[in-house]
Amino acid sequence: MASPQQLLVAGGGIGGLAAALACARQGWQVRVFERAAAFSEVGAGVQLGPNVVRLLQAWDLGPALQAVAAFPERLRVRDAASGQLLATLDLAAMRARYGAPYATIHRADLLALLHQAVAPLADVALTLNRRVLGYEDDGRRVLLRTGGKAVEGDALLGADGLWSGVRAQLLGDGAPRLTGHLAYRALLPQAALPAALRSTEVTAWLGPRLHLVSYPVRAGEALNVVAFVHGLPPGGRQGATPDALADWDHATNAADLQAAMAGCAAPLQALVQAVPAWRLWVLADRPPLRAATEQARGRVALLGDAAHPMRPYLAQGAGMAIEDAEALGRALRQAETAGIEVPLLLARYALERWQRNARVQARALRNGRIFHATGLVRWGRNLSLRLLGERLLDMPWLYGLNSEKT
Ligand code: FAD
Fold first, then answer.
1. What are residue 289's phi and psi, to 5 degrees?
2. I need a surface site. Which of 18, 143, 235, 380 has the fewest CB within 10 A?
3. Please, what's the b/e burial string for 67-86 (b: 16 or more CB within 10 A of its CB; e: otherwise)?
4. Is 129 domain-assigned?
5. CATH value at residue 316
6. What distance in angstroms lies between residue 283's CA and the mean position of ligand 1's atoms?
7. Which residue segment(s) compose the domain that 124 sits in?
8. Considering the domain boundaries, does residue 22 fall inside one?
9. Three-class SS state of 241
10. 228 vs 217: CA distance, rounded Å
11. Helix (H, G, I), strand (E, B), or coil: what is residue 61?
12. CA 3 – ligand 1 centroid, Å
């Protein structure tokens, strides 16, 4: 029997660890190189649609997810200015409709579940404190240059996030773009909140040039709150370098956000005022993918934010990274069974994924325009939500069985 093939992975975030798990399950040896000193995530939450939870369950992570995630029963959409309820979506019904629940989870808990699944695997080697510097693809092998010695593999996966160095070398298509939107994030122990502000549901407040989303995480013990407002970091677009933007994930003055929310309904303002400290995040993205060759070339493929960084307005960035991982695992399985060359398998992976990723990127962009609408568009949005409700909020094309393969 042929010896297992080797996949090198740049980046050990949600996407990199999900890919390590999916590909090791298909018989590949995987080496992950993460530049940070630990596998860690920022203190914030992430929503996972049934399309993603289904994959985690298929990887036998269902019980671990059940222990740490929350499973909200309802989404409520409100107008941020009037406080009026516009529409609801029955999230509890997704278990029956889509074969898996809608989950909300602390990012560190999601990363920890993936880490606990891959760390014991004999075929996965995880290396911390190792920055990927570049690679050479000579057609037969990939040579990866890292902070330590060079390593060789059959394929390289760039799972190194928004500012991906692997993408820069593979596509040379410049830096991500600043969206002009800022995210203020906070995590609050529910027990410390007044009863009226505690919540077991997902709530979205849509306002002019802003919106706010809250949902439970940590099995319901904490409330994740994220507010999106239009604005740029000081220095405007000149600040758009990875280091300058990384500095922007810092504790920030709550007064800035309170001022931006000044015209909002009283219950929303009460929630914002209950947050003692926010972390500020500058949002950047790329336009939707235009071809499969933007997700894989030769022996190198991209996954997650390295391939398709998107606005978080469909709550699917991490979800698409996990879907990518599953598709990559399935594609690579055929290396041994069908004896197909690695570049062809990676091309097949990219072909399967790029259109769905582009669709999700485009829909997230559109959602941002709708969520932050002003004037007549806002009026039309509110009317449509009141009239059509669930029919607008539910997305079988996104959540449905086998949707990830379309
Ligand atoms: P990353 O998480 O960026 O991981 C990349 C990893 O690579 C990092 O660990 C980094 O240290 C490492 N790395 C980088 N360069 C190198 C190098 N040269 N060498 C070695 N290692 C390197 N998604 C959802 O699904 N649902 C949500 O509700 C949701 N909400 C969001 C809210 C906000 C405000 C934001 C900003 C995003 C949200 N997302 C959401 C999107 C989601 O966070 C990302 O899509 C996801 O984290 C991407 O994972 P990744 O592994 O591709 O990239």
1. -55, 145
2. 235
3. ebbbbbeebbbbbbbeeeeb
4. yes
5. 3.50.50.60
6. 12
7. 6-72+100-175+287-368+395-405
8. yes
9. coil
10. 19
11. coil
12. 32
- Name the phi and psi angles at 71, rounded to 5: -130, 80
* Number of domains observed in the structure of the chain: 1
Contact partners, residue 315, CB within 8 Å, separation at least 6: 46, 47, 49, 213
Sole residue written with tokens 């093939």? 5
Place of tokens 């995590």: 187
Please give the structure tokens belonging to residue 333: 């399985």
Structure tokens at 263: 């015209």
Is 265 part of any domain?
Answer: no
Residue 90 Cα to ligand 1 middle (Å): 28
pLDDT, tens digit, 9 for 90 and up, residues 165-178: 999 999 999 999 99
Question: Which residues lie closer than 8 Å to 149 by C-beta, 6 or more apart?
Answer: none
Phi/psi at 250 (5° precision): -135, 165
Residue 273 is encoded by which pair of tokens?
Answer: 């005022």
Q: How many CB atoms lie within 10 A of CB 324?
A: 32
Q: What is the pTM of this model?
A: 0.96
Residue 349 lies in a domain: yes
CA 39 to centroid of chain Cα atoms: 16
Per-residue pLDDT reduced to its tens digit, 28-86: 999 999 999 999 887 799 999 999 999 999 999 999 999 999 999 999 999 999 999 99
Ligand 1 binding pocket (C-beta < 6 A) is 10-16, 33-36, 46-47, 131-132, 159-162, 165, 183, 226, 281, 283, 304-306, 312, 315-319, 321
Q: What is the DSSP string of 114-165?
A: HHHHHTT-TTEEEE-S--EEEEEE-SS-EEEEESSS-EEESEEEE---TT-H
Find the 384 Cα to ligand 1 centroid distance in Å.
33
Nearest residue CA, atom 18 of ligand 1? 132
